[in-house]
Structure formats: C-alpha cells, structure tokens
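Continuing the batch. This is chain 6 of the set; chains 1 through 5 are on the previous pages. Same settings as before, nothing changed between runs. Recording input and output for traceability.
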Amino acid sequence: MNEMQTVEALPKYLTAAQLAERWNISLNTLYTNRSKGRPFPPGSRIGKLLHFPIAGVLEHERKQQMADRSFNPDLDASNAPVERKAA
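Output for chain 6:
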C-alpha cells in the first residue's frame, strides 16, 4: 500500500480476492489459511462473498508488522543493551 494513501481513499470492505491480491497470495491460500485458524483479520459473508472490513485488515497488518523483527527494532536481539560485568 502506498504510504501516502489515506484510509478515506480505501474502500470500506475488501473482498477475499482483493485481499489475496493485496497480500500477493492466491485466493486458495487465503481460504486455506483462514479455515485452519491462522491469524487473520475478521471477515464476514455478505451474500455469497467473503468481505473484510478495511479497518480490521489495516489493524491486522499493523500487528503482523510489529511482530516482525525487520520492522520492530525492539524485537531484534542485536539491538539489546549489552550488560557489562563489574570487575
């Protein structure tokens, strides 16, 4: 997602196909991961299609990013303070 893009410019809901395209995964992978109970944003069926509220998708992406060491320096052990032993 373009960082300059605001929430107002995004649709209110994403279909499963739109979410799969956003995450660069296949639609089958999306359905499989969701059915296996893997961490996923909340979704609901509207008619025959599965829809995900954009607010839930953005929150899920933020949580996943914060759990990733490459985005969250606090999780990287190489950034931990070094303890010096007293002589």
